[in-house]
Amino acid sequence: MRKIVDIRPIKRELRAKYRRIRERMNAAQKKEWDHMIFCRLVEAPFYKRAKTLFCFVSTAIEVDTIAILKQAFADNKTVAVPKCMDRNGHMEFFIIHSLDELKEDMFGLLEPDPAQCEKATDFTDALCILPAFAFDTEGFRIGFGKGYYDRFLQRFSGVKAGICYNNCMTSSLPHGRYDVPADFVVTPKYILTVKKQEEQSHD
Is 93 helix (H, G, I), strand (E, B) or coil? Predict the structure, then answer.
């Protein structure tokens, strides 16, 4: 009988490791890498094809998404940003037309106001930008550990793209059966195209 391994402690250690890497990053270097990721992303065919951009609003230790959101507005895309609805992993995205529509929550995070913004439910021609402390070459991620994106991605049918620094990329990360990998991972140096299982079966 196959032994079931609890990967949660391993993920916690990895989360702490990559958080330290992010916190110790030189500010000038981070700014340069953020810009390189931005340039690669907005020139990518999967970004250009997308009519709706689902994108998180970055915090200080994450890859900057403010420039990405502003570019999406300039490109006349529908822009949707996330709101954590409860503490049980339930997250929804809401459409905004300007960054001015975002408000700080009790933790200082910028979020949309569900009372003022329309919920995004159409995933047709949609691209979701995924946050993470780290990604591996199969598109799996180490997130913040709350499970919000894991649950959302179970029902998201669009294209999924991670954004990540090269020093937070690794060959393999532990993942469970409910973890959904990215289709692409954009780094300062390259865009990783993740090979899907159905493609592998035809090799």
Answer: strand
111 is in an annotated binding site: no
Q: What integer pLDDT is reported at residue 201 of this predicted model?
A: 34
Tell me the pTM: 0.90
Q: Per the annotation, does 89 bind a ligand? A: no
144 is annotated as contributing to ligand binding: yes
49 labelled binding-site residue: no
Task: Show the tokens assigned to 145.
Answer: 């550990």
Average pLDDT, the chain: 91
Q: Is 13 annotated as a binding residue?
A: yes
User: Does pLDDT of 202 surpass 50?
Assistant: no
Q: Is 30 annotated to bind ligand?
A: no
Q: Token pair for residue 126?
A: 């949609």
Give burial (CB, 10 Å; 0-12/13-18/19+) of 172.
exposed
The full set of domains in the chain, from first to last, is: 8-197 (3.40.50.10420)
Name, in order, each residue with C-beta under 8 angstroms of 133's C-beta and a sequence gap of 6 or more: 14, 15, 18, 19, 22, 141, 142, 143, 144, 168
> What are the Cα distances from residue 178, in Å, to 64, 136, 172, 185?
27, 16, 16, 19
Residue 166 has pLDDT above 90, yes or no: yes
